[in-house]
Amino acid sequence: MSISRKIDLTWTEVQDVYVKQESQWKRAKKVFVKSGGVWKETHSSLHTLNISTDVNNLDLDNEAIDRFNDVKVIVNSGVTVASTNINTPSFKTGVGYGGTLTIVNNGNIWGCGGIGGTGASTGCNSGGYWRYWRHSIIRRD
Length: 141
Known about the structure:
By secondary structure, the protein is an all-beta fold. Helix content is 0%, strand content 43%.
């Protein structure tokens, strides 16, 4: 269920909901409506970031994300998020989320696992997977 508004004969889904509390308008993260004696969620603020091309050293602090909302980051199929060196994470989530951060990894997220011993390659192509992670809520759909 969602909340819609009608503007000039056209119905559109509401992205942000505000409520007046103690003479101040505040943004609502979730809205519930009681129907048939049961409370049902009708609106949840969600910001979605789609990663659709290969990227190195992805830092969510540098992305235009509305952190007030729940945030969903989707790494599309066939896309690789990688690191360019052993000191830089391939995927850094950052901090300051007002809701839940969900990562949907349909592609590849590769860290640079280190250069190994003297006989190993000095590149990151044979590295490990996660090198840096701050949030424990990870889901693969």
